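Encode chain A's predicted structure.
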Amino acid sequence: ASAPATPAPDAPAADAPEAQAPPAPDGRPVGKHLPRSRPVRLLIPKISVDAPFTDLAIGPSGRLNPPPASDVNLVGWHAKGASPGETGTSIIAGHVDTKTSAAVFARLGELTKGDLFHVLRADGTRASFRVDSVETFAKDDFPSERVYGDTAQAQARLITCAGDYDRQVKDYTDNLVVFAHLV
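Encoded structure for chain A:
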């Protein structure tokens, strides 16, 4: 399923997760950050995720296109946004399931505050993130600014579908979002 709203690469975050650092008075990045580099693999040891990345773009509807459903072990990142580890909010999306089976983010809701996940990057570095919170939002009341808004800290959002499947619209009613920061 598609993400509910357009990621806003330059929008300020509102109602930010508790671990979000306030912007520096001089506009510089806050905390640890890495230079821009394309993500290669997502590793989430707690839920046995080891998945390659694909680029995602904003579709004609103004929503982030999901990864292709033909590969159940594939995650995508908003390629025009922050790369994982770079200052800002990196958006990583994956399917919870497909018509035929569970998918890469089927167990994403098992993550809890303090859990770690890692992104292997094309420059040979590994960006490690600590989970701040795991929250579910109704798609028709999705907090786009909070989820997609840029931050002065290197953060990541893991996003998948959740809730009930609505057969009429062929989509789930909710989104599950994992908020995390670079450690």
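The chain has one domain: 39-182.
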